[in-house]
């Protein structure tokens, strides 16, 4: 009786072609086995194929053996183990910042950090397409949220000018590689504009960590913008193939986050095995600094096959390649047809993407060889034409 409000919501979602289920995938990674058959998985964020990398697993196992299963307390109590500080020092060095702080997830890194940078009397200027975790963090902060047109530097400028007379801190937030469009923000120009207006800049590098820049350090590092970007946020859950999030920043800001970021303080410290895996992934980035370049060359090739057949991949310039279908049901039908042919290409629908832009979101990973890319491109082109 008290739950009679639930079914109408679920029915409405189904009617709109927006029903969501957490489907079981028997394995993680870019190439998996389902019912004994090899399946190409283009919906995994394991971009560098590290989820089963022997060194990453070894490092994780060593940490497990040394420290046990859990950190057993929050960071400010007794949950900070030497391995947490080792990882933070390593991230700071790789990202080119004074300091870094690890959080339980990328979502928590955004939820913990943004409300510290901006509060009730302040302003946050956010790209129209930033990730839900950034938007939720903005809401949590209580700051006035102002959106600007996607990747549009003039729109950033206009918005900052519009609020130039207002007192209060100003924070611009964007992503370097956008999670659903795979395009790249004009970081240098946005940094210049933010600086001109005395605003801080925070960049979410969830999808460019490991996949761009020297040793996979990301696009802030590639463009030498460390001193212009107040916070470089990243995750250990995509190219690092594990779990967890982090921010790289000044030592002073780190101190403030330790002192007051609720998503850092009021939760148990990430488990040792997860931290060990992240250290292992950073070892691989350092030992094989060209992995990101190879990934991007493969993504370029895949995109060129789709373009030759007239498919639109928006402004994608990364390993994330959207194929916009538009209609929700059609996107799901194409995804299901591909699945029957041994190809996983998840249909992404609103509200994750704007209404009318349902799409297949393709993630190229290093598990996919040239033959796999060619087979998948052919199947996708046929499925889009025939559906
Ligand atoms: C751009 C972006 N930021 C943050 C997150 C959250 O990271 P995590 O999955 O580690 O919580 C994700 C993905 O989930 C993302 O795509």
Strand content: 15-25%
CATH class of the largest domain reads Alpha Beta
Ligands present: pyridoxal-5'-phosphate
Helix content: 40-55%
Q: Which architecture of the largest domain would the CATH scheme give at its second level? A: 3-Layer(aba) Sandwich
User: Strand order across the biggest sheet?
Assistant: 3-9-8-7-6-4-5
CATH homologous superfamily designation of the largest domain: Type I PLP-dependent aspartate aminotransferase-like (Major domain)
Span between N and C termini? 42 Å
Order of helices and strands: HEEHHHEHEHEHEHEHEEHHHHEHEEEH
Number of helices: 15
Pathway: Cofactor biosynthesis; biotin biosynthesis
GO molecular function: 8-amino-7-oxononanoate synthase activity; pyridoxal phosphate binding
Domain Aminotransferase class I/classII large: 38-380
Function: Catalyzes the decarboxylative condensation of pimeloyl-[acyl-carrier protein] and L-alanine to produce 8-amino-7-oxononanoate (AON), [acyl-carrier protein], and carbon dioxide.
């Amino acid at each position: 009786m008290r739950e009679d409000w639930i079914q109408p919501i679920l029915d409405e979602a189904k009617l709109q072609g927006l029903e969501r289920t957490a489907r079981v995938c028997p394995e993680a990674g870019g190439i998996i086995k389902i019912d004994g058959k090899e399946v190409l998985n283009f919906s995994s964020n394991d971009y560098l194929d590290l989820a089963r990398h022997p060194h990453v697993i070894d490092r994780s196992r060593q940490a497990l053996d040394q420290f046990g299963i859990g950190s057993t307390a929050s960071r400010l109590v007794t949950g900070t183990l030497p391995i947490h500080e080792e990882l933070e020092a390593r991230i700071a060095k790789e990202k080119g910042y004074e300091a870094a702080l690890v959080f339980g997830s990328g979502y928590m890194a955004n939820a913990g950090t943004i409300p510290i940078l901006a509060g009730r009397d302040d302003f946050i200027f956010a790209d129209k397409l930033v990730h839900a975790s950034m938007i939720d963090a903005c809401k949590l902060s209580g700051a006035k949220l102002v959106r600007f047109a996607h990747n549009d530097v003039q729109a950033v400028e206009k918005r900052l000018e519009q609020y130039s007379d207002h007192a209060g801190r100003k924070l611009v937030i964007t992503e370097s590689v956008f999670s659903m469009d795979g395009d790249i923000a004009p970081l240098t120009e946005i940094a210049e504009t933010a600086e001109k207006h005395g605003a801080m800049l925070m960049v979410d590098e969830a999808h460019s960590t490991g996949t761009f820049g020297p040793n996979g350090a990301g696009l802030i590092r590639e463009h030498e913008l460390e001193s212009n970007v107040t916070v470089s946020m990243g995750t250990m859950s995509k190219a690092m193939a594990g779990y967890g999030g982090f921010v790289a920043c000044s030592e002073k800001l780190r101190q403030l986050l330790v002192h007051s970021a609720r998503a850092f303080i009021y939760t148990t410290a990430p488990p040792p095995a997860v931290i060990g895996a992240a250290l292992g992934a950073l070892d691989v980035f350092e030992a094989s600094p060209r992995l990101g370049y190879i990934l991007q060359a493969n993504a370029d090739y895949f995109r060129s096959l789709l373009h030759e057949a007239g498919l639109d991949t928006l402004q994608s310039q990364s390993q994330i390649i959207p194929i916009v279908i538009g209609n929700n049901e059609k996107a799901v039908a194409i995804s299901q047809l591909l699945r029957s042919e041994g190809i996983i290409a998840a249909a992404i629908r609103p509200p994750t993407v704007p209404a009318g832009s349902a799409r297949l979101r393709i993630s190229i990973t290093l598990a996919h060889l040239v033959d796999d890319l060619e087979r998948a491109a052919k199947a996708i082109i046929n499925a889009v034409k025939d559906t």
